[in-house]
Amino acid sequence: MLMAHVVPAGCQVQVETGRGRVLAAAGLGAGRVAAVAGLLVGRQAHRRLRRVHGPRRNLRALLTSEFHFLPMDLFISKVMPVARGPLKFFNPRNRREGGRENSKITFVTESKGDGGCDVDRMKINSLTINSKKYLSLTVEYIQLALQYKPLNLGQGFPDYYAPENVTNALAAVAKSDNPLMQQYTRGFGHPRLVNAIAKFYSKLINRDLDPNKEVLVTAGAYEALYSSLQGHTNLGDEWIIIEPFFDCYVPMVQSAGGIPRYIALKPKSTSGTVTSGDWVFDRKEMESLFNEKTKGIIINTPHNPIGKVFTLDELQFIANLTKKWNVLVISDEVYEHIVYEPYKHIRIATLPGMYERTITIGSAGKTFSVTGWKIGWAYGPANLLYNLQVVHQNSVYTCTTPTQEAVAIGFELEMERLEQPDCYFRSLAMELLPKRDYMAKFLREVGMVPTIPEGGYFMLANWSALENKVKLHEETDENKDYRFTKWMTKNVGLQGIPPTAFYGPEHKTLAEDYVRYCFIKKDENLKAAAKILKKWVS
Ligand SMILES: Cc1ncc(COP(=O)(O)O)c(C=O)c1O
């Protein structure tokens, strides 16, 4: 029988589940949503927590009777699933069920918890959650594009057709005579897809991957990142993040209770021909970031937004530090097949002693140019993937069946023609190379200094020589690159992305003179972009 009563201070709840009591509280800490949870657990709840989450360090933290700061999503993914029976949450300010509009957490209604703990309704003060701070850059810039309708070179996806073999496969799956193709599939990955992924990467990393334990299919690489960080972060753990970074890394680390530690890639030169290889990290600085609180490092190669393909020497240096400090690597390799000759993508998991500590992340969206399908994956040792499975199971649970089947078919075809030039994993970079070179040329012609990427499909360009042509004072954002990109969107009709969004608070000034453009766009649109810029500067 459920009993819940309000405990004073903040929005705290105490829930008796019949198997023990969970005392939790939710409130706002330091401008971000946080939940304070302390557990006073009876033996059974204790045992169940262990069964569900395993004997992990963050679980031990939860199991003390002290209060801990927990992010809201950690609370939902880790505490809620183990409390069987209905949960009632109360707003103590109101002292009755239902809450009050202006309180921080308005209310969470009772859930029907016979086998789980679905939250029927959760209303969190909209002012807090919807504040600009929590909206990703992409969300803000999509809105801007909708309003001003510029030529959009901001977002990272093709504006032309995806390869026919995968779209045909999806069409065939939709009409398949197997009715199960339209129903739920295995939660940790559709069997045909995990088999294909395991077979493909087993070959690439020269190790037999177990499709059921060493591969997890996720809702895009995004969810693989989220499940990795959520599943492997204890409160106060530090993650080393290389700037510029894909913008979700930081909020994901923070929402898991971790602390980002930043190190910036800096260009060795800023004039003449600059390539992404010129952007390097300082090795002493990198070394100094590792300490006993370090949980791991997130690397991204080929890199967004710089296009850097990390060298063997750089990866070896990072690998040695992770082994020295016995920490994890999350290797975001979503652009693994988009590498321009003569550069080669190196998987850090293949370096000696690294598979054991590495979670490698891939994306069907980037691999097959179908970003709208939102299928991604993580592979790595079973003990590391287990934590991701727990988070995935309690959040997404299972990804869409037809898209997984179609991606599996795509993999199977490419595996057959891996050594041939028409293999998509080869032809995509060949198709993009002239686009890259064309963009670099027109950016130079208008006075920008592009960084020529070795991989990926983004180009960073320094626009400082054009500063006198932009009325930066007409925009109000703190960072110059935001003002530049917004002003350009509104007045010139070309949209790029401000790269300071990819930096922590201390290093934003490093990127203020840059803009990121994406070149996986139709030739006619790249030509139109060149025309817009040339007309503007003339
Ligand atoms: C570096 C990086 N990682 C992850 C992702 C997310 O990939 P997905 O669309 O598969 O979620 C992106 C998307 O742009 C990216 O650039």
Automatic annotation (TrEMBL):
Subunit and partners: Homodimer.
Organism for this UniProt entry: Trachymyrmex septentrionalis
GO cellular component, one term: mitochondrion
Needed co-factor(s): pyridoxal 5'-phosphate
Record's protein name: Kynurenine--oxoglutarate transaminase 3
Record keyword Transferase present: yes
Any one of the GO BP annotations: L-kynurenine catabolic process
Pathway where this protein functions: Amino-acid degradation; L-kynurenine degradation; kynurenate from L-kynurenine: step 1/2
Pfam families per the UniProt record, alphabetical: Aminotran_1_2
Segments forming domain Aminotransferase class I/classII large: 150-531
Entries under PANTHER family matching the protein: FI04487P
Keyword Transferase recorded: yes
Protein keywords: Aminotransferase, Pyridoxal phosphate, Transferase
UniProt GO molecular function: kynurenine-oxoglutarate transaminase activity; pyridoxal phosphate binding
Signal peptide range: none
Similarity remark: Belongs to the class-I pyridoxal-phosphate-dependent aminotransferase family.
